[in-house]
Amino acid sequence: MLTRRNFLAASALAAAGRVDAAEVDRTKFAEMALGLAKKGGAAYADIRVNRYRNQSLSTRERQVRRIDSDSSFGYGVRVLRKGSWGFAASPDFSERRLGEVVRQAIEIAEANSALQAQPVRLAPQKPQRDRWRSAYKTDPFQVPLEKKVGLLMEINEAALRVKGARFVTSSMLFVAEDKFLASSEGSVLEQEIIRSDCRFSVTAVDPARGEFQSRDSLAQAVQRGYEHVEEYPFVAEAEQAAGEAVEKLSARPVEPGRYDLLLDPSNLFLTIHENCGHPTELDRALGYEANYAGTSFLTPDKLGSFRYGSKWVNMIADRTQPHGLATVGYDDDGVPAQRWYLVKEGVFVDYQTTREQAAWLPGMQSRGCAHADSWSSVVFQRMPNVSLDPLDSKLTAEELMAGIRDGILILGRGSYSIDQQRYNFQFGGQVFWRIRNGKKAEMLRDVAYQGRTPEFWNACDGVAGRGEYVLGGTMGDGKGEPGQSNAVSHGCPPARFRQVNVIYTGRERRS
Question: In 3D, which of 184, 189, 166, 150 has the Cα closest to residue 57?
Fold first, then answer.
């Protein structure tokens, strides 16, 4: 525990922009903030004191293009007064500035109350006191830059050794969050989170025809340390990707039509994100996101009865999943992480919710989905890890393929489009293989599949077993105004879909 003299000295450093997380007694600072909020008439208050660190590296061919490191440290105070929220934030830890921030939050709440149609009601929550750390072995911020650059160059060289591969880029991104939350209800929570990402893209060129094709890495970001980078076979995959990019140059364009699809987890995770993850956000379903990225076709009248998919489709939201990008010990409301069904045996059964949203519909509870991407950002509902669970399936990818007479195997994330209700969609990929009589045949190119969300998931007639389950995800999922970015994972095994509409996406004239 710091003395008050040292605390004020740290505050002076903070005001000068030179404070570090270790120099501020966050517990003492939070006590001061919550005391000021109570004196100002707040019925509820919380404070988040968070530090964020990011490191990114990027290369192209045999050159290092960029190395960036940055950090951010500050606090945000949220108050509930007269049934409305008020929020203010600052990187200045001086006692004077703290008083100003709390007063500003209370003034904003009072101003908002004049327009608030219904008072905010928070679902009951027992006070939580805990420390939680994400599962990682090696802190990537302690790994020398030379080692990281060396691996990226090795990836690039492996791709360039393949004849016809002309360009390659590779990159790494590491994120660390040191989060502290204290509330007027008595919760005091500390959390440490580390996420890692490594990827590449290879481009092959046919100079005679002036044509090029690319193939990106299939690996996805995870909530792990540097061990993720060391354990994944990036070098071997870079060589394979280069060969496939070259092969794509001479691959046949797809003939449009209806095909059975076998979707690899590296492709299906994005489809899950867009047409299950986003539609089951309660604020979106009730129209709160209509100005930014749309609403949802999964309106409350469908809850508990709507046939979202076939009996094989079990979508699970999970903030406890090991290595999931959205995994936490507690959300930014102080609610413990949970696991629950969004779709069970094909039926839409629940939403993603926060403490505030739990009062919006009868029978709702907080699912621990409150999140802000910075100490300076407002807390609101964000997506948990959402995954297609295989349950007790004993099927293998080979058995799923064996049941396809005429179809396409799709791997990797490609371009995509989805309407404002997450209903009509189109998704591409990285690599496409024709399936003939249950066997993988020739490579195809310029493939995208499209459809309507419930029709697509009702066409699912097989999901491989847990042994083939893979966790994918993205470090950047946008939502809100002003916009915020959230990291989130989506896991699944390979899955089969019958008679899905496939289109040709190429530009050249077809013979």
Answer: 150
Three-point CA angle 444, 449, 451, nearest 5°? 165
DSSP 330: B
Give the confidence band of 293 by pLDDT, cuts at 50, 70, 90: confident
Half-sphere exposure in the Cβ direction for 73 (13 Å, CA): 19
Tokens of 176: 């660390």
* Burial (CB count <10 Å: 0-12, 13-18, 19+), residue 213: buried
pTM: 0.93
Q: CA–CA separation, 67 vs 41, rounded Å?
A: 47
Alpha carbons 456 and 423: distance in angstroms, whole number: 10
The answer to whether 248 and 393 are in contact (CB under 8 A) is no
Q: How confident is the model at residue 23 (pLDDT cuts 50, 70, 90)?
A: confident
- Do residues 387 and 495 lie in contact, with contact meaning Cβ atoms separated by under 8 Å? no
State how far Cα 9 lies from the chain centre: 39
Residue range 119-162, pLDDT digits in tens: 999 999 999 999 999 999 999 999 999 999 999 999 999 999 99
Provide the pLDDT for residue 508: 60
User: Quick check: helix, strand or coil at residue 343?
Assistant: strand
Cα 342 to chain center, whole Å? Answer: 17
Torsion angles phi and psi, residue 235, rounded to 5: -65, -45
Under 8 Å CB-to-CB from 11, ≥6 apart: which residues?
Answer: 19, 24, 93, 94, 95
Q: Which of 60, 70, 79, 67 is nearest to 183 (CA)?
A: 79
Task: For the domain covering 4-250, report its CATH number.
Answer: 3.30.2290.10
Phi, psi of 224 (to 5 degrees): -140, 180
Give the integer Cα–Cα distance in Å for 313 and 410: 19
Residues in the chain: 511
Cα–Cα distance for residue pair 194/54, rounded to 1 Å: 10
Asked whether the CA dihedral 123, 126, 131, 135 is positive or negative, the reply is negative
Q: Which long-range contacts (CB under 8 A, 24 or more apart) does 206-209 make?
A: 206/164, 206/249
For position 22, what pLDDT does the model report? 66
User: Beta strands of 286-413 (E only): which ranges?
Assistant: 315-318, 339-344, 347-348, 370-371, 380-381, 385-388, 406-411
**Residue 491 forms beta bridges with which residues?**
471
**Local structure of 44: helix, strand or coil:** strand
Which tokens in the block code for residue 171? 């990159």
> What is the SS3 string spanning 192-232?
EEEEEEEEEEEEEEECCCCEEEEEECCCCCECCCCHHHHHC
- What are the boundaries of each domain within the chain? 4-250, 253-504
Residue type, 230: E
What whole-number distance in Å separates Cα of residue 451 and Cα of residue 460?
A: 13
Of 350, 352, 347, nearest to 308 by C-alpha is 347
